[in-house]
Amino acid sequence: MLSCDICGEMVTSEPDMKAHLVVHMESEVVCPFCKLSGINYDEMCFHIETAHFEQNTPERNLERLNAIQYENPDSKNTTRQSTTEVNSSIHSACALNFPKHPAQHLPKDGTLKHEALCAGSITESRKYSKSPEKQFGLSAVQESIYETTYSSPECPFCGKTEGRSQDMEMHVKTKHANLLETPLEDCHQPLYDCPMCGLVCTNYHILQEHVDLHLDESSFQQGMDRVQCSGDRELAEQLQQEEDRKRKSEESRQEREEFQKLQRQYGLDNSGGYKQQQLRHLEREVNRGRVLPSEFHSRKADMMESIAIGIDDGKTKTSGIIEALHRYYQNTATDVRCVWLSAMVDHFHSSYGDKGWGCGYRNFQMLLSSLLQNDVYGDCLKGMSIPCIPKIQSMIEDAWKEGFDPQGACQLNNRLQGTKAWIGACEIYTLLTSLRVKCRIIDFHKSTGPSGTHPRLFEWILNYYSSEREGNSKVVCTSKPPVYLQHQGHSRTIVGIEERKNRTLCLLIFDPGCPSREMQKLLKQDIEAGSLRQLRKSVGNLKHKQYQIVAVEGVLSPDEKLFNYTLKDFFTMSLIPNCSLFKHPTASLCR
């Protein structure tokens, strides 16, 4: 047998029950207080709870139960209708006065089970009955409802089942008394609104449990937010690390490229030295058909012989220029008041083997050619010839091994042979000192005239050569060696200075970049004024930021050479302006 949960009617089979339930679904639900209809069952319950709060009291529901019980005891249809009305009324009372469950005990639609509400409501109604008659009538109705509707009553709080409704009442009163402690006599009992979702609770403890659920959910969400935030932070850190890594990698690449560029610029890229560069040039000339194979082998043999003996082959040398200048100034140059020329000196220009990096070596050859023709330096330079460039590199390395200029040696990795490394004023100073030639470096570290010019440099050269002026001679051939002139990226040799009638000064300079065919034009009997243009340099022609010169001043004794060796940790040079001794711990401008 199956029992209908709505009206309690007993049917014999499941299909009959389904047909019976269709009748209920099609029938109209009517409010027991105001006869409202046309809405479903859940909406009717909500209507009774809100619109008929005062009428929906236990006493009124008990009176309606008694009235229904005794007014129509014999009418079956009336009984079913009355039972439905009673159940609806009881459900409304229970929904209003019964304490609400925590969220985890509620069904998905947020309503309490119908049987739970009825059981709780009946229990409370029996507790507050005013007379034995009412109590007797209520008990009869309760037993009728439970016996008709449920075979085994179930506790709405813990789910326990009992055989009889009286046992279930006792169970609820004894085990769940704390949930039934709210008095129902006062229809104006306190209600508690949830501050988070607005749910109305009739019991503070239930509200607290309900709010705890919100807090737990909020804590969980905050935890998820923290996890998300932590993940975002880690992602940001990873992106920043990746960006830093790329930036450092790019900086390292740029530094590496700049370093390699500087190595190539200053001949420290291990691409070979003088011999390799000369051979590559000869091979290119053969490939272009400009040089015959036989001539290639002849030039190669001459070069290898020159390197083997360490003496320059003289193919880039031009001699006799100082004598030619003396004739020119003596017989022509009417606009020149006076001119001072250095001692005899040969001009050396760069060859294909040292093109682009050999200016310092060629200037040393010029300076040494003048010293070798001067008897004053015959003792310290005895037996020497003009060395080739690889030999000069070897001589500088030997000076480093003696202990001169250790910082310069370190900057050039203690190696010059087989490289295209540039040399400057410091290497020239080191090499001359190792040969016992007394010299000093004068550093014109900043301009001393308008537009970045260096008039103090011209004045110093004039004083250097004019100290040997003889009478009122227009042309003075001094015994002073030429002066090594260095500026950033290039070096030249000063062989004289001229003073014009308007008191302006012009330096006479040998440039290793000037080829022999141009220098040989100065050897003609009738030198044209235009031919001197490549030698003359006025104040306005020298505008580099800084200049250094190496001036030879005599011969060093063995003791003086040893003293200079003890000063190997720095260079002593004069600074102009502010001519004072300056201990210069670094290498030359050319590097």
TrEMBL record:
The protein's Enzyme Commission number: 3.4.19.12
Pfam families named in the record: Peptidase_C78 (PF07910)
GO molecular function: cysteine-type deubiquitinase activity; zinc ion binding
Top-level taxonomic group: Eukaryota
Annotated ranges, domain C2H2-type: 192-219
Compartmental location: Cytoplasm; Nucleus
Recorded catalytic activity of this chain's protein: Thiol-dependent hydrolysis of ester, thioester, amide, peptide and isopeptide bonds formed by the C-terminal Gly of ubiquitin (a 76-residue protein attached to proteins as an intracellular targeting signal)
Residue span of region Disordered: 236-260
Record's keyword terms, sorted: Acetylation, Cytoplasm, Hydrolase, Metal-binding, Nucleus, Repeat, Zinc, Zinc-finger
Main location: cytoplasm
SMART domains: ZnF_C2H2 (SM00355)
InterPro entries named among the record's database cross-references: Papain-like_cys_pep_sf, UFSP1/2_DUB_cat, Zinc_finger/UBP_domain, Znf_C2H2_type
Any one Gene Ontology cellular component term annotated for this protein: cytoplasm
Class of the enzyme per the UniProt entry, highest EC level: hydrolase
Keyword Zinc applies: yes
Subunit description: Interacts with RPA1 and RPA2.
Described function: Deubiquitinase with endodeubiquitinase activity that specifically interacts with and cleaves 'Lys-63'-linked long polyubiquitin chains. Shows only weak activity against 'Lys-11' and 'Lys-48'-linked chains. Plays an important role in genome stability pathways, functioning to prevent spontaneous DNA damage and also promote cellular survival in response to exogenous DNA damage. Modulates the ubiquitination status of replication protein A (RPA) complex proteins in response to replication stress.
Family: Belongs to the peptidase C78 family. ZUFSP subfamily.
Protein name: Zinc finger-containing ubiquitin peptidase 1
Protein species of origin: Phodopus roborovskii (Roborovski's desert hamster)
